[in-house]
Amino acid sequence: MIAKNRRILFICPDIKRAVGGIKQLYRQVDLLNKNGFKAFIVHSKYGFRSTWFENSTPVLYNADLHIDLVDKNHSNKKLFFILKRVGKDILKFRKTITRVKNKKWQTIFNDSDVIVVPEIYGPGVERVLPNNDKVVYNQNCYYTFNAYKLKGNCSLYSNSKIKGIMVASEDAGNYLHYAFPGLNLFRIHYGINKNIFNFSANKKKQIAFMARKVKEDIIQVINILKIRDALKGWDLIEIANLNEQEVSKILKESALFLSFSHREGFGMPPAEAMACGCIVIGYTGNGGDEYFKESFSYPIAERNIQGFAKTIEQVILEYENDNRALLEKGRMASEFILKEYSLEVEEEDIVNVWSNILKTNE
Question: How many other C-beta atoms can be found within 10 angstroms of the C-beta atom of residue 291?
């Protein structure tokens, strides 16, 4: 028997802006509930909910737990640096969140609850709720050790209450299997909603990109192309602070998408761009190695500025001479992504993973 009556509580930071990892937490909670499990998001501030994507996900609240995860007596500047990269709002914890006593809205945890903690909290994963089974949802393996220094010992995830690690890519799986060979490792394929992100052949001479990471590379690549007059007649569109429908509209209209992914657990933006038929040029972020196929995309070695700029110029020339081959590559990319990373595959993975975890730890 699978103990579906146990609550599965996903700890989630209160970040207002669009962060893909948070959407994945909400998504997993929804799918678990759909399949008979009892799952909840746990935010800190009462009434908070992510609103940049549509959801009716069940949310609980506990401020004290969130404070303990980043308590100044146990964490360090590196932890806050990485949290800042995830979202500036989380840095306001000490100013905006106070410990709460006898508040009816603050969730009381039971020892039977399974606590799911993102990898960004480092040592806080083991420190909080020591009597509860825990699972680490490691959406970016390259953030795993950011709360640690070179000096001193690291015993991350050594507690017997850590029952497994969930990852979102082959690269992350290899990284964490090597780092933690004794722990159960579970792969969950992200699902892309084909009703929002789907192929369009009605492309403009438009290049989309996101500037959240390695901005210095973006500045170099774009300015080199401008100096060479290689972007004449093309529009550059930066995607920032938009909802899914707005992002989808831009991607469906864009012929090219530039990927400046850097140390990604998976890298959702390039995959969504491929789903919309964009020709994707750029960095895989390692996590994207599994879907940056050379048959329909143009992977660039990390931080290779010249190679990046030259490839864009080459693809633009090819597109302007005869875009039919590139449109076909865009169609191939879309078909691959929507098959390999479908919502159905994601749901099946989630159900199988949690059935395994709860059955093993009854």
Answer: 23
Closest residue by Cα to residue 5 from 144, 110, 102: 110
Residue 137: other Cβ atoms inside 10 A: 22
Q: Which two tokens stand for residue 87?
A: 């979202």
Number of Cβ within a 10 Å radius of residue 302: 16
Q: Write the pLDDT tens digit of every residue in 206-261.
A: 999 998 889 999 999 999 999 999 999 999 999 998 888 999 999 999 999 999 99
At residue 93, does pLDDT exceed 80?
no
CB atoms within 10 A of CB 348: 16
Q: Tokens in use for 340?
A: 């390999």
Q: What is the model's pTM? A: 0.88
Amino acid at 276: C
Sheet with 254-260, side-by-side order of all strands: 235-238, 204-209, 254-260, 279-283, 298-299
What tokens does 350 get?
A: 């989630």
CA distances 126 to 12, 48, 65, 177, Å, are 16, 25, 12, 19
Confirm if 305 and 220 have CB atoms less than 8 A apart.
yes
Q: Which of 267, 255, 246, 235 is nearest to 331 (CA)?
A: 255
List of long-range contacts for 223-227, beta carbons under 8 Å, 24+ apart: 224/305, 224/309, 225/309, 225/312, 225/313
Instruction: Record the tokens describing residue 310, joined without a space.
Output: 């030259």
pLDDT tens for 130-153 read 999 999 999 999 999 887 778 777
Task: Give me the DSSP letters along 178-228.
Answer: HH-TTS-EEE------TTTS------EEEEEE--SS-HHHHHHHHHHHHHT
